Amino acid sequence: LVILAIVVVGYLLITKSNKNNLQAPDANQAEDQTDIGGRERFSSPSVNESGTYNLDKKSSSVRVSVGGSSPSNMTIKSGALMVDKGNVVGGDIMLSAGDLKSVTGFDTKAYPEVKLAVKAVVFEQAKSTIDNLVFRVDTELTMNGKTNPMSFPAMFDYNPGQYYISGVASPDWKLWGITLPANEVMTLNITLNAVK
User: Fold this and answer.
1) Helix and strand totals (H; E) in the chain
2) Core-most of 45, 88, 104, 190, by most CB within 10 Å?
């Protein structure tokens, strides 16, 4: 009996010691964060995030770059992203085309506004690596009186109450009635910072 009592007491002491040595989970890591490669944490949108996120005009921009010339900024008149259960499911950004008077091919008099309608932000798993997460932004671009779909790769960042998208689009400008000189490239540099 004495030997059995010593074994039981020893077992209880060892078990208690092991429980005290276990570390509690990192209190700074939220439930919606995933550890990537042990190097950094990527915060993914929570299913609790829903509603309208208005564009912060000061930290958002849409610029047109033609070749090596300085980019032309389009004035953001209004903008918002619609979020449902953490996913971007829509949004409209209205821009002034008047800032593009110097860019060849834009009929800013007949069509003074440009509309960028965001349809979805999709994670591109096949193109992503541990160090570089790639997303695709699906949109519709209305300019020069024509509306066409446009998708572009982008960086996407999420913080509670904030959605940030940044990417460069190089669409087929002929769809909008714009013919560029040979060997000339025109891109849209898009940065959208939407907050609740």
Assistant:
1) 1, 12
2) 88
pLDDT tens-digit readout, 96-136: 988 887 777 788 899 999 999 999 999 998 988 888 889 99
- Residues in CB range of 85: below 8 A, 6 or more apart: 47, 49, 50
Residue appearing with tokens 């909008």: 176
Using DSSP's 3-state secondary structure scheme, residue 113 falls into strand
Residue pair 91/54 in contact (Cβ under 8 Å)? The answer is no
21-41: per-residue pLDDT in tens?
A: 333 333 333 333 333 233 334
102 beta partners? none
Neighbours of 49 (CB within 10 A): 20
Query: How far is the C-alpha of 59 from the C-alpha of 187, rounded, in Å?
Result: 19
- Strand residues in the chain grouped as ranges (E): 33-36, 40-43, 51-55, 61-66, 72-74, 76-84, 87-96, 113-123, 135-143, 146-159, 162-169, 186-195
Quote the CA–CA distance of 33 and 35 in Å, as a whole number. Answer: 7
Global confidence as pTM: 0.75
